[in-house]
Amino acid sequence: MKINGKHEHTIWLDTENPGLIHVFDQRYLPHSIRIFNISTTDDAVYAIREMVVRGAPLIGVTAAYGMYLGCREALDRHDPTEYLAMVGEKLKGTRPTAVNLVWAINEVMDAIAIAEAWSEKISLALKRAHEIKEEDISTCQRIGLYGVELIKQITSRKEGAVNILTHCNAGWLATVDWGTALSPVYHAQKEGIEIHVWVDETRPRNQGASLTTFELVEQGIPHTLITDNTGGHLMQQGMVDIVIVGTDRTARNGDVANKIGTYLKALAAHDNNVPFYVALPSSSLDVSIKNGVQDIPIEERDADEVKYVRGLDGAESKSVLISPKETQALNYGFDVTPAKYVTGLITERGICEASEEGIKILFPEKFD
Ligand code: MRU
């Protein structure tokens, strides 16, 4: 997708230095476009943990390139195998909820297992990281192609713009390109369908207010920023035609972990008969977890993210305290929406019911 009219990916290998990966530093968006360089595994760990990069698919791709850098670093170590295993564990420990992280690290480990020489392992790791990146692009594109059909169905029964509500940022910045939940929106725009997006601000880190809005401005898509508490009212007033959100991990039974607050939107959608869809790349599917509500690990982040809000003061980016300093705060990053509130999962292989049976029809090999 575009920044300043130029097509970009969120992550890329330097054209001249094979030991250097570039990403957009999402901590500074929307006010400043900065590139962050990843040249060591510690940089990759930092980028994921500090949310320089974020969003389940992009976290996975970054970890894959981190493992490639780990193979390069392993070359000089006394025990390269042990060193790489340690890098894998460090990367896995950065964030707990998005399953793409562990998935991508395991994919690279599997890909390099066939080689003996470390020089060959390095090439295989880079090849697999590139493939994971490319697969993410085509997966997201396909999610868009299936998802746009839902938007088209709405246009056949109403006049004017289709109103789509989304939570957090599951646009291209959370992936490599296209996004998950926003991919159907971008495809609708390409097809000339009149759309309007309600963007939840998504406290505490405001990925909706800072990232989803940035993407939609850059893409020229009509949108309105709302506080996290507004969605239910809009749904009661018939102002939302469809909700589409992303997911960081979806369990075997169709329960969906996504950014905190998603569950409340699903409840409101259910109460108001508004279709509630989840854009699910198969890299975010975790069939090893039978019951998502019970067993998906939920990240708990620093309480200061709740107590402080970051924004622009004139030209200066500032963090301001919005509660008494001594107030205790609790900061869960994600919640789990039970499958019964999910109208369907939009995947790269089509749309299915949010249930084990539904998922199995599209991804039988995951259940082997
Ligand atoms: O904490 P983040 O910003 O890494 O969370 C990721 C998200 O933006 C989402 O929960 C998203 O909707 C799913 S990832 C496409």
Which key terms come to mind for this protein?
Rossmann fold, globular, binds 5-S-methyl-1-O-phosphono-5-thio-D-ribulose, seven-stranded mixed sheet, single chain, 368 residues, 19% strand, Four Helix Bundle (Hemerythrin (Met), subunit A), alpha/beta
Describe the model.
- With 368 residues, the chain is an alpha/beta fold.
- It has two domains: 2-135, Four Helix Bundle (Hemerythrin (Met), subunit A) (Up-down Bundle), CATH 1.20.120.420; 143-367, Rossmann fold.
- The chain is 39% helix and 19% strand.
- The chain has helices spanning 41-49, 56-74, 80-92, 100-112, 118-155, 183-190, 207-219, 231-236, 262-271, 292-295, 304-307, 356-362; strands at residues 2-3, 6-7, 11-13, 21-24, 35-38, 162-166, 195-200, 223-226, 242-245, 249-251, 256-259, 276-279, 285-286, 308-313, 316-321, 334-337, 344-347, 350-352.
- Strands 8-7-6-9-12-17-18 form a seven-stranded mixed beta sheet, sandwiched between helices. It has a four-stranded mixed beta sheet with strand order 13-10-11-16, covered by helices on one side. The chain has a three-stranded antiparallel beta sheet with strand order 3-4-5.
- Helix 5 packs across helix 6.
- The longest helix is centred in the middle third of the chain and has 38 residues, at 118-155.
- The mean pLDDT is 97.
- 5-S-methyl-1-O-phosphono-5-thio-D-ribulose binds at residues 54-57, 168-170, 174, 180, 207, 245-248, 258-259, 333.
